[in-house]
Structure formats: C-alpha cells, structure tokens
Amino acid sequence: MSIVIGSPAPAFELSDQHGNKVSLASFKGEKNVVLLFYPFAFTGTCTGELCALRDDLSQFQNDDVQLLAVSCDSMFTQRIFAEKEGYEFPVLADFWP
C-alpha cells in the first residue's frame, strides 16, 4: 500500500509489547503521532536507531506527541526487545504468523 506524503495514516490497531491494543484512532485530537517502522528487533541498525530515540526521547515524545515503533516481530519478541533495551514507548507488533 502506498501512502502519499502528508496524507493521514490509515487506521490500525496492533498489540504493544505488553499485549495491550493500541489504535492510531485513539490519539486523534489528543496527540500527534510519530510512527517509526523498522524491519526486525535485535538487528544492529534497528537497535541502534531505536536506542538513539530512547536516549533523546524528550525530543520526540511529550504531552502533545506520542512515539510508536512498529515492526513485523511478535508481541513476545517485542517485549523482550523493549525490556532489554529499556524502551519506554510502545513497541507494536505487526506480526502475521
């Protein structure tokens, strides 16, 4: 699916690393959302990029902005990854078995 730059993101609902459902629509009118897509947990480049966001989280996430990271990993993998790396933002599982 192609999305035109500047257009609204399509609606979705995914599980975070704790098994909670996160819906993009739940932020509408409340917070702006920064969506970060990365291919897989525990890869060098992806871990480095997410750790950079973790280390500067206040630059990306505040009362008006929510960071959501999305990959193809399972919720269980996301949980271990987020715990190991100390991510304090939702890490969403777009996993299809």
What does this molecule look like?
The protein is globular. The model has no long low-confidence stretch (mean pLDDT 93). It has a three-stranded parallel beta sheet with strand order 3-4-5. A two-stranded antiparallel sheet has the order 1-2. By secondary structure, it is an alpha/beta fold. Helices cover 28% and strands 23% of the residues. It has a domain at 40-97: 3-Layer(aba) Sandwich (Glutaredoxin).
Strand order of the largest sheet: 3-4-5
* Overall mean confidence score, pLDDT: 93
CATH class of the domain at 40-97: Alpha Beta
Q: Could you name the CATH homologous superfamily of the domain at 40-97?
A: Glutaredoxin
Task: Describe this structure in a few short sentences.
The chain has 97 residues and is of the alpha/beta class. Helices cover 28% and strands 23% of the residues. Helix 3 links the parallel strand 4 and strand 5.
Break the fold down into its secondary structure elements and pairings.
Layout (H helix, E strand, L loop, with lengths): L12 E3 L5 E3 L8 E6 L6 H12 L1 H4 L4 E7 L3 H11 L5 E3 L4
List keywords for this structure.
globular; 97 residues; 28% helix; three-stranded parallel beta sheet; 3 helices; two-stranded antiparallel sheet; alpha/beta; 5 strands; Glutaredoxin
